[in-house]
Amino acid sequence: MTMHMTPSTDVSVIPAMVTDVREAFRSGITRPLDWRRDQLKKMIALLEENEADLLEALRIDLGKPAAEGFITDIAFVVGEITMMLKNLAKWNKPERVSTPLVALPAKSRRIPEPVGVVLVIAPWNYPVQLLLVPVAGAIAAGNAVVMKPSEVSSATSAVLARLVPKYLDDRAVRIVEGAVPETTALLDQHFDHIFYTGNGTVGRVVMSAAAKNLTPVTLELGGKSPTVIDESANVRVAARRIAWGKWMNAGQTCIAPDYVLVHQKVADRFIDEIGKAITEFYGDDPRQSESFGRVVSDRHFARLSSLMAGGKIAIGGQTVADDRYIAPTVLVDVDTDSQLMHEEIFGPLLPVVPVASIGDAVDFIASRPHPLALYVFAENKKVVDHVLSNTTAGGVTVNGTIMHISNPNLPFGGVGESGMGAYHGKTSVRQFQHMKPVLARGTKLDPSLAYPPYTEKKIKLFRKLL
Ligand code: NAD
Question: Among 259, 372, 408, 465, which residue has the least CB neighbours within 10 Å?
């Protein structure tokens, strides 16, 4: 696999660039719905007309199978933008609300208004989706945007840096390429909202930088997303759905099932079924499979190889360093104190830990930081309810993995260590807006009740009214 060097944006131009974009916002060009509609349509054109280039870049960066790249980084984004286009007028209408008696006569509304200039910082694992979906939300909300793709997925960054100025209005929408120095220079500027997707360490850097200007942040972070399998579960279906969610993008998915807590009564059957699923999905030698990706960098390859020490290999375990290939791997006899069970795996390793009861699984999860996603497999509804009401997670799929992200009516985001704020569908638009409360009074009536002097009679009336 070839590594592309990312040409970075000259840091010295960044302050002036952000000033220009702010001027564009102030001038009002981003506010009309027609401008927003036009930009959103152009984003769709960018994706559709350059699908081949984008898929090739994803293959270079991540060995991403074309089918996966198409679904997650093209079709998903087009779907989100199409929904925004359909609902643009509706979601940007002021919302009428009722007014209490004391304020009458008056009308009350919440008026959605753009916050201003938005900074979007994206990671490398779904480098198109995680950049352009928040950008679309910011535009649909009427903002100007500066976006920065990840330098780690350098081929995709280069394609996007070529296409964004070609398709989008560069007065108000800009792309900056680069790594820490460029991002640091961006974070020195004043933005009205920062939307960051990536790891929690950098999330803290972003939030501290934002604090200087009291800039609100959305932090889309990660963590160890647990999967619980009850003895009542349909074990075969669970194994297939877990295998799909785990080994998509070679495990480099923020909501991939990180580890499995399986009821001991069905643990052996689960290992057996997941082995069958791996063979069915990727063949006897997954390295030859067109449907299985690669680890993004040598650093992550080394990290993942050493994480394997935390358990005994039951399935897979093969690695090829110069191809950054790590086989779909299932680990058993896991040391729960090891790194494998403490840091987010973010790769194709699946530790499986048997538990004596669902209570034990719940205790294990509840004693750790809130995950981005949680999965529970059970036919017994009481078990599902018990897990749901005794754990916290950014989002949940029951009897499946990943799929809660596919419904734009469900806000997507983390809680606690897995992040703050959310997006997708209408939530994406609201994330970048201030819902300005406006109470507009009529002047035909102007009772003196509320005005001084506060007589006994008035106070009595107050007590009745309030
Ligand atoms: P990454 O290394 O690409 O970093 C993300 C972004 O942060 C990049 O644009 C990078 O340039 C920037 N960055 C890195 N160091 C910086 C610094 N010191 N100062 C300022 N900016 C800096 O990606 P990553 O962090 O390895 O991404 C993987 C993590 O992201 C995982 O934890 C994963 O779970 C999480 N993730 C979350 C979501 C979500 O939607 N919640 C989605 C994908 C990934």
Answer: 465
Q: Please state, in angstroms and rounded to a whole number, the distance separating the CA atoms of residues 437 and 94.
A: 10
Q: Are 187 and 206 spatial neighbours (Cβ–Cβ below 8 Å)?
A: yes
Tokens of 3: 């590594």
DSSP 119-141: EEE--SSSTTHHHHHHHHHHHHT
Residue from 199, 374, 402 to probe ligand 1 pocket by mutation (most atoms less than 8 Å from CB): 199
Helix (H) or strand (E) holding 449: none
> Structural domain of residue 119, as residue ranges?
11-221+421-437
Q: Same domain, yes or no, for 285 and 180?
A: no
Q: Which residue has the tokens 């480098």?
A: 127
Domain count, the chain: 2
Residue with CA at minimum distance from ligand 1 atom 4: 123
The per-residue pLDDT for range 207-248, each reduced to its tens digit, is 999 999 999 999 999 999 999 999 999 999 999 999 999 999
Residue 361: give its domain's CATH number: 3.40.309.10
d(CA 122, ligand 1 centre) in Å = 6
The one-letter code for the residue type at 40 is: L
